[in-house]
Amino acid sequence: MLRNATLLLLAASLGGCSATATQCLQTPVSNKVPEEALASCDQALAADLDRQDLFHRHVNLLRVRGRYAEISRWSRRVLEHDKKRSDALYNLAFAQRKLGRCEKALKTYLAYAEAAPDDPDPYYGMGLCYLDLKDHESAVRVFNAYVSKEKRESQREWVERA
Fold it and tell me: Most CB within 10 Å of its CB: which of 45, 59, 109, 156?
């Protein structure tokens, strides 16, 4: 136990990373982690909004708990800090869609698609929104765009669903 604590402190001091950030990054993505782990991620991210690794870990921890309003809040906060963070745009769109705000999500997905034109992911999210809005013609159009752009083998399942 003491050895792990020493390693954490050493890693934090060498990498310019706080112990809280290190703790957050080592938190497994699970809905079973204690609230204290989420609080440490909140604290670490608030202290350094530039850290994409902290943002992604925190968003993933919130996602497995279904806490989409918090994902939205953190995404907006990161975007206020750095308007060019396309990762925050994508997570904001995702959260808006999960919260049933598809009109807003569509606008955010479009902004993300412009910021990251090679990424197929926003088209899948847009397709889900159009389905929720009962606009099947638009859903087919953006799902087709997704399928034509998606070349990653790891995403084959999503291509088949589209």
Answer: 109
pLDDT per residue over 128-143, tens digit each?
A: 999 999 999 999 999 8
Residue type for position 142: V
Phi, psi at residue 58, to the nearest 5°? -65, -45
Is-contact 95 109, C-beta < 8 A? Answer: no
CB atoms within 10 A of CB 107: 13
Q: Tell me the whole-structure pTM to 2 decimals.
A: 0.81
Phi, psi of 48 (to 5 degrees): -150, 85
Whole-angstrom distance, CA of residue 65 vs CA of residue 45: 18
Q: Indicate whether 4 pLDDT > 50.
A: no
The residue type at 24: C
Whole-angstrom distance, CA of residue 156 vs CA of residue 162: 10
